Each structure stands twice: as structure tokens, then as C-alpha cells.
Amino acid sequence: MAKAVIVFGPPGSGKGTQAVLLADSLRVPHISTGDIFRRRVEAGDQLGRELQAIMRAGKLAPDELVNRIVEERLGKPDCAGGFILDGYPRTREQAQVLSGWLNGRGMEQVVVNLLVDYNVIVGRISARRSCPRCGAAYNLISNPPKDGGVCDRDGSPLKTREDDQEAVVRKRFQAYEQQTLPLLDHFRSSGSRFYEVDGNQGAPEWIAGRISGLIKQE
After folding, report:
1. What span, in angstroms and rounded, lies between the C-alpha atoms of 54 and 57?
2. Cystine design at 95: which of 17, 78, 89, 198 (Cβ 3.0–4.6 Å)?
3. Prior bond to 89 cis, omega within 30?
4. What pTM, to 2 d.p., does this model score?
5. 210 three-state secondary structure
6. Positions of E strands within the chain
7. Distance between CA 194 and CA 50 in Å, rounded?
8. What is the rounded distance in angstroms from the CA atom of residue 160 to the CA atom of residue 158?
9. Which residues are catalytic?
10. What's the pLDDT tens digit per position in 38-51?
């Protein structure tokens, strides 16, 4: 049975990295709603213009619009054998629409929630640096620059993004918990396969291997 794997995790948990690794391991597409939205805006079609207007107004896209865009992507031929979802669903209504869509196509829903301690997340995010000139990204722990605090490419002094400051990280973490907890409760009681995986320690590839093993269980 084709599987739709939904990956959850707070900001800085490595959720995006895990989604990419799982897509490679399971040989299915990685569907990121953030990427989809950016491409739609760049395309300039009707949905893209509608989405851009909402984003410029600083509002969240309504469930109906998000569902429409995601369902259009999931209807592509490459998703017929399964896929990894990153960033969707975000609300109970979106989750219900997705479950109905999957049931109608005989696809199994598997939910994976990455558990990462807040202090670990702060350590990871606060170690991130970027080059203001070329945009290269570094991490002082896992991917440090070769020469102190300057970019390997052009020698520019590296900067810390404003949204990587601890106060901002704390707000993002709290907002995630408030938004996602009801959704996780919904999945726990939905009858779908639901796994919680410790993402505090271990290389990303090792964690992805554990998750992949769980997903492949029948």
C-alpha cells in the first residue's frame, strides 16, 4: 500500500532534513508546502497571485486555499506511489481533508513526530551563521566555516539572523506547540500509525534510518 508520511517537528528540530532523507530512502517525492507556495507565487498564476496577496498582508493562507494547492500537487503522477509531507497539514480541518483524500485513493497515512528538547534546539539554531553577501549557510557545530567567522567563499564576516536569536526562537517554539498540539492529539486518536521519535541525539542519517524502519513496518 502506498504511504503518505507526515513529518512534524518544532523549528530547529531537523524536520526538513529528515523529510529529505526519508524521501531519498523510500524513493518517494518530498512535498514541502513552503516550496510549493514559493513556486506558485513565482509562476504568477491565479492561485499564486491570491497567495501572494495574503502573504503581503501578513495573514495565514486559509485552509481552503492551502488544501486546494496541496491536493493539486498530490494529484501529480509522481505521488501515486507515496510521498513525504513537510509543512502540511497545520490545522485540524486540513488534516481531515487530507485523510479523506488519502482514504479515497487507498493510501495509508503514517505520522512521525520528532521530539527535540528546547535547549537542544536553541543550541542548534544559535550556532547558525550566514554570509550576507553570497547567502552561504553555516553551523558552528555541524558545518563550521574553515576560517573562524568568515565565509569560505568570499571572506565576508558571517552574521546571525535576527530570527535565530534565542528570544525569537523561544516564541517560535511556543507558537509551534500551541498550534500543533491539538493536531497531534487528533492524529493519536485517528487510528493512523503514529510514531514519536527522539531527535535529540544522533546523526541525521541515523535518525532517518530509525524512522524509515518504522515506516516500512506493516
Report:
1. 5
2. 89
3. yes
4. 0.81
5. helix
6. 3-8, 30-32, 82-86, 108-115, 128-130, 137-139, 193-198
7. 34
8. 7
9. 15, 90, 128, 161, 172
10. 888 888 888 888 88
